[in-house]
From TrEMBL:
Family matches, as SUPFAM superfamilies: MFS general substrate transporter (SSF103473)
Keywords recorded for this protein, A-Z: Membrane, Transmembrane, Transmembrane helix, Transport
Alphabetized InterPro entries for the sequence: MFS (IPR011701), MFS_dom (IPR020846), MFS_trans_sf (IPR036259)
Lineage: Eukaryota, Fungi, Dikarya, Ascomycota, Pezizomycotina
Polar residues composition bias: residue spans: 1-22
Topology class, membrane: Multi-pass membrane protein
Organism: Lophium mytilinum
Name this polypeptide is given: Major facilitator superfamily transporter
Keyword Transmembrane helix: yes
Membrane spanning residue stretches: 124-144, 150-174, 186-209, 215-237, 249-272, 278-301, 321-342, 362-379, 386-404, 416-437, 449-468, 509-539
Amino acid sequence: MESPSLNTTSGSLSPTKSNTISGDERKTDYDNAAEKESGKLSPEMHEPAAKPHGVQLTLIMTAVLMTQFLVSLDQTIVATAIPRITDEFHGLDKVSWYGSAYFMTFSGTLPCWGKALIYFRLKWIFLLALFIFEVGSLICAVAPNAETLIVGRAIAGVGCSGVGTGAFLVVALAAEPRRRAQLIGLLISTYGIGAVCGPLIGGGFTATVSWRWCFYINLPVGGLAALFTVLSFNIHVEPLKASFKEKVLQLDLVGAAVLMGGIIAFILALQYGGQTMAWNSSTVIGLLVGFVLIFAAFLLWEAFQKERAMMILRLCAQRAIWVGSTFQFLYGASYFIGLYYLPIYFQSVRNVSPSESGIRNLPLVLSFGISSITGGLALSKFGHAVPMMAVGSSLATVACGLFYTLDASTTTGQWIGFQILAGVGWGVCWQCTMAIAQEGQEPADLPSITSIVLLFQILGGAFGISIAQCAFNNTMIEHVISSLPGIDPSLILGTGATEIRTVFKAQEIFAIVSAYIAGLRVVWGLMVGFAGCAFFVGLMSHWKRLYQHEGANSGTQHMA
């Protein structure tokens, strides 16, 4: 997850500003004065005079590191468990919801949490987010059916959004300026460790105990983190001054609700289309038309909200931001599709256990983690973001094309090499668009800019997984109808990904596995399209060297 860039050398928590924007992109002093008067423009938030140290700082850092680990773990641990979940709940038709419900609420509430953390008491908002995440995890763990699991994932996404955002602000407030960059780097490293451990832990739990422990594990860890926060976080930071009404309006809860409503309409249309209903049915057409109308209503509402909006349109109109957001949407779609569908390939086509599937995903997550850190260091040193975006997206495009060749006979060296290439490609791009979008902006705008760019990355995951699931299911249906005319395609879709060899006859397995391969090839093709489009979009960004007006340590300020 990307985070706001913080000034790590001054005594202020205002975001770093490198040089001012010019022309019509810059607001006038009159506009700023008017917005401050109405409470719409966030003033500078100052650090507390007394900093924690010793045991207190250790407990605070332990708490936020634990929560950051859980946030990262929750985004990847489910992937290797999905095939086994489809076994228990008997079907592939709701796979997209397990990821999309989480990403939908994560992205939809992200800007709301960002504002809540500075307009209300930080400690209690952070604990509230952690509590919501724990409730969502508990619902997932005890879910008796797919629908309950989806609701739990949606609730967990709301909490994760606040916990992930709040962790960076807590560290910024708790750390001395000279140590802040170091501790934020530790926070980012913990996120990377969680991403690596997710498939391994998820596969291990699923194979040896139950997939439900992928969610139960969040309860004791999150509870301990909450206890440490209550006992140690006694930093006195005054929330930004505004009336309660203004604080609530700043959250733009209506905008978040409208955005999530549009996403739900789109996902439902893809879930029904070609599977339970014809594409030309009134329900599917109505949902697609509804999605367009809801999205239009969202834009109108955001225009009406102006500086209170979760997506401030004057910022979205800047090339650096709309190009970066579009790139992140395409990037997020290709990355999260791969993260969710590679375990299905390993467990259904290659017939390996969930734990073995997690091990086989290591080339992807390790190469992604290493290349994202290396890419961040290279970006801070050389400042050339667009070439890195071009190289990364082109490598990812080639890797996704190589995924298209995956079948039951692919060699170990091939699937390892393909994943390493993809991980390097995705990792190199991890921070580039955020750095470009933040460059030269007004300090008060940086939290909103960060939220917008990250919002589109998560939305890419939600939309990408849904589109991939629709294409996967429809392709499987067509393949089964042509190769196994005596079998109802809904029976295959209603069978878990790892159950096909126990439910169907031996002479039917080959055709069913072939249907899986055919469906997955359409998924890999979508990943090629998303990554390839990201390459061309990235070329439209600003070709300028970043940080050239900053000091030697400025790069670390933008790497978070």
